[in-house]
Design brief:
There is one protein chain. The protein is of the alpha/beta class and about 450 residues long. The strands form two sheets. The chain has a twelve-stranded parallel β-sheet with strand order 1-2-3-4-5-6-7-8-9-10-12-14, with helices on both faces. A three-stranded parallel β-sheet has the order 11-13-15. The longest helix is centred in the first third of the chain and has 20 residues. The protein starts with 13 loop residues before the first helix and ends in a 6-residue tail after the last helix.
Length: about 450
């Protein structure tokens, strides 16, 4: 029969059509479905839409998201929904329109029993207002999300996308009851946590989620009791603990070093990520010597305390892999990290020397001397996979009378190292072509990258 229908695509068995379509990108599926009626009938076969990645950033994306959700959200194994954050200080009708669209899309998945990965992506939705209309939208969002979570008995990955308004302690309780045997990744950190009056986590909730490998939460939610629960030998080992603090905490948790020691001992492969956002009071009190700190980000926190950096380089020298210091560059203020006669060596050079596993260093909005930049590159070499330093932050070393340490260094007439020479020396030390950064990292991008961390 196949031979007698040579060239007749309509005659192919549906199982073969689905196999052919499965080799295509999602954007090409619709075009391929125009080949004939038989192929069009196979377009929304469940095997072709295991994963839905939907966005609500433009009217076109909204229309596509609603169409695909109507067809596939009821059976897809993975559902990701992204909407833009509100960058203004007030809620407008456009904001409400986006959230209504999000609600329509999510309603299509409320009876999905196959869902294994549910990811909401938005760095804060700023929807909550005093109007009854806004409260109704939020209440319905929370209800629909709870339905999705409680119905997905094999849910392995769950992300609330930093939206403090769309989930609460009841939602988390639903997760603990429905997914205690399956969930291995839970992202429940939030932005603007001051808008939430209740605590999300209790030791009993985390006790029930015994298979968690990845957990992100607000640092302000962390307690000695929660860390102790995660030391239980009857539960699986945690791989990533991602802690976020946005703004000054109402009550800074006093986590004992002994508890961190037990936590690290019972979770030997765990990596802790600590992100402080808009915390101007310093970061020393967030640290403990036994914390298995892998990634430290200080974003828009003002002046960086040299003593605290020295603490990091001394106590986390075996675990630290990534350090990000990021400050606004358009406010006319540039904080200094240059060494002086009183403080001695540049704290970042000392950190690069001590932290032998450092692979990523980002310095934006802080003065960083050329000599220190070359020193960091030579200390870590090709092991340093990423070195981001804003070009406007690179300055000359104050002490121009110091004897030149490198004979092959090209010096300008005024004693300064040229930028071309700097690029060359840093590139040679790193073993890859390096250039100064010409941009400021996007906070939303960095935070959304954390949502990619998942267990297995």
């Amino acid at each position: 029969k196949m031979a007698t229908n040579k060239g007749n695509w309509n005659a192919l068995p549906s199982v073969i059509v689905v196999e052919v379509l499965s080799l295509l990108q999602k954007r090409d599926l619709v075009h391929a479905a125009t080949t004939c009626k038989a192929w069009r009938a196979c377009l929304f076969h469940p095997g072709l839409w295991n994963s839905l990645d939907l966005k609500l950033n433009t009217p076109q994306q909204m229309a596509r998201a609603q169409f695909l959700a109507t067809k596939c959200a009821g059976f897809a194994r993975e559902l990701s929904l992204e909407w833009p954050k509100n960058d203004t200080d007030k809620v407008d009708e456009n904001c409400r329109h986006v959230m209504r669209k999000a609600l329509q899309v999510l309603k299509m998945a409320r009876n999905n029993r196959n869902l294994e990965k549910f990811c909401l992506k938005c760095c804060g939705c700023d929807l909550l207002d005093d109007t009854q209309e806004d409260e109704d939208i939020i209440t319905e969002l929370q209800y629909v999300i709870s339905l999705i979570v409680s119905g997905a008995k094999n849910l392995k990955y769950l992300s609330f996308g930093y939206c403090v308004e769309i989930f609460n302690s009841t939602t988390i309780q639903s997760v603990a009851e429905a997914c205690e045997q399956s969930l291995h990744t839970l992202h429940a950190a939030t932005l603007y946590p001051e808008e939430r009056a209740e605590s999300l986590f209790t030791p009993s909730i985390l006790q029930s989620l015994q298979h968690l490998q990845v957990l992100s939460m607000d640092f302000e939610e962390l307690t000695n009791e929660i860390l102790t629960v995660m030391c239980n030998e009857n539960r699986g080992s945690l791989k990533n603990l991602i802690l976020l603090q946005d703004g000054e905490p109402v009550n800074l948790p006093n986590i004992r070093d002994r508890v961190w020691h037990l936590f690290a001992a019972n979770n030997p492969d765990v990596e802790v990520t600590l992100t402080l956002l808009r915390v101007s009071s310093g970061f020393y009190d967030y640290l403990r010597p036994s914390m298995p700190l892998s990634t430290l980000r200080l974003m828009y926190c003002g002046e960086v305390d040299r003593t605290s950096l020295d603490f990091v380089s001394r106590h986390h020298c075996k675990t630290l892999k990534s350090l990000t210091l990021c400050e606004w560059m358009d406010n006319g203020i540039m904080y200094s990290l240059i060494s002086d006669n009183v403080m001695g060596e540049d704290p970042l050079v000392m950190l690069a020397w001590r932290c032998t596993n450092l692979t990523h260093l980002s310095i934006i909005g802080y003065e960083f001397s050329k000599d220190s930049l070359v020193a960091v590159a030579r200390l870590r070499g090709s092991q340093l996979h990423s070195l981001e330093v804003s070009i406007s932050c690179i300055v000359e070393t104050d002490d121009d009378d110091e004897e030149d340490e490198y004979e092959d260094e090209v010096i300008l007439d005024d004693g300064a190292m040229s930028m071309d020479t700097l690029r060359q020396q840093v590139s040679e030390s790193l073993g890859w072509s390096w250039t100064p950064a010409l941009y400021t990292p996007n906070t939303s991008t960095i935070l959304l990258e954390d949502l990619q961390v998942q267990g297995n």
